[in-house]
Amino acid sequence: MSEASPVTPSWLTPDPTWAGGGAGVTENVTVATVAPAPRPAAPELLVNPWDMVLCTSGALIACENGVVVLVIWQNAALRAPMFLLIGSLALADLLAGLGLILHFFFAYLLRSDSAQLLTVGLVVASFSASVFSLLAITIDRYLSLYYALTYNSDRTLTFTYAMLVLLWSVSLCLGLLPVTGVNCLREESTCSIVRPLTKNNVAVLSVSFLLLFGLMLQLYVQICKIVLHHAHQIALQHHFLAASPHYVTTRKGVSTLAIILGTFAACWMPFTVYSLVGDYTYPPLYTYATLVPATYNSIINPLIYAFRNQEIQRALWLVCCGCVPASVAQRARTPSDV
């Protein structure tokens, strides 16, 4: 992009119809009557409402996940592999929320290409770390069931640290791509549906997401098989398969896994598919309509992975009011908490 070209205060390439009321260029027609007074042009929108929605989502994401990060950080008892992965997910979503907020303010106040690249890189790295953390949590759940007898060992903790280092390193590399030159600021024709990311960059991210989703789906299928097999064996020992409380709660746990995977797909799949088929010439409305639901996944993640966990609930009660309700303290862990 040349120095004389204006900076677009949005995630998208300039849209000539956004503020112009949709009027096109018309031919000059000579008439005998007096020409009517020219219609005043529609006022330009100072702030894109969709960008305000993204900024609001970012604020909610940052506040919600900030609570999770604070609780896990302050509680020394929450250092098991499961909580480290939940903390990684919350930290990634927290950074993603901050990235959305910073992008909004820098785009409309600073109007700098460098700031735009930095904030977009932060958002890409954070959302990548969020998706990778979800995969790591799925792997951890599978290993905790498949190797139930040897799961609580030093090897598991070492493996968890290795996964964290790997996922954050890959996410950081993906986030640095726009900053290091893989962007479309100099050549608008290479832009994707999200400026300043190139079409090839977004395609790689989308294909990677589809591969990760396929791996998560396969792992959750294996988890369901293991859980149902264990529940079936326990229920047969009691000779009451359908009426066994353990079997009922196990079915609830399998339903919970389906909800987790379904929510993840519903949030990210529209944007992923549209990223593969769309480009910068497509209407901006389609991009925002798929990008906004993708951010909602970071709002839902704490509700699924953190606030439902009994240990985190106890720690949160202690931080908020210094006590733990009896209903929370005495609640037993069930397979539905898988």
From TrEMBL:
UniProt-recorded Gene Ontology molecular function terms = G protein-coupled receptor activity
Q: Pfam families from the entry?
A: 7tm_1
Alphabetically sorted, this entry's keywords are:
Cell membrane, G-protein coupled receptor, Glycoprotein, Lipoprotein, Membrane, Palmitate, Phosphoprotein, Receptor, Transducer, Transmembrane, Transmembrane helix
The record's principal subcellular location, in a coarse class, is membrane
Location in the cell reads:
Cell membrane
Q: Name one GO cellular component term.
A: plasma membrane
Q: How does it sit in the membrane?
A: Multi-pass membrane protein
- Gene3D superfamilies reported for this sequence: Rhodopsin 7-helix transmembrane proteins
Instruction: Give me the segments passing through the membrane.
Output: 50-73, 85-109, 115-137, 158-182, 202-221, 254-273, 285-307
SUPFAM superfamilies documented for this protein: Family A G protein-coupled receptor-like
Q: G-protein coupled receptors family 1 profile domain: which residues?
A: 64-305
The family database entries (InterPro entries) matched by this protein are listed as: GPCR_Rhodpsn, GPCR_Rhodpsn_7TM, GPR_3/6/12_orphan
Q: What PANTHER family would the database entry show?
A: G-PROTEIN COUPLED RECEPTOR (PTHR22750)
Family according to the record: Belongs to the G-protein coupled receptor 1 family.
> Per its record, how is this protein called by name?
G-protein coupled receptors family 1 profile domain-containing protein
Species name? Megalops atlanticus (Tarpon)
